[in-house]
Design goal:
- By secondary structure, the protein is an alpha+beta fold.
- Helix content is 36%, strand content 35%.
- A four-stranded antiparallel β-sheet has the order 2-3-1-4.
Amino acid sequence: MKLVAELSMYPLNEQYIPPIQEFIDRLNSYKNIKVTTSATSTIVSGEYLPTMQLLAEEMQRSHEKVGQAIFVCKFLNGDKMSTDI
């Protein structure tokens, strides 16, 4: 089963761009997912369980490094998507 996740990260500090870019760069290092970044969010798609696992690990990593950060996430069943993301 495929997963499509749309994520936005909001670090709660004045220097918010570097932690966001670092998070996106780490996501891009995974070969088993597709990452598409826009001005307001990042879309990640891949096999359901491995993708959820890596998102959990990377969000935890960001929280440990940054402290407070808000993640807004939407999760979709990628098998039911009418187009390939």
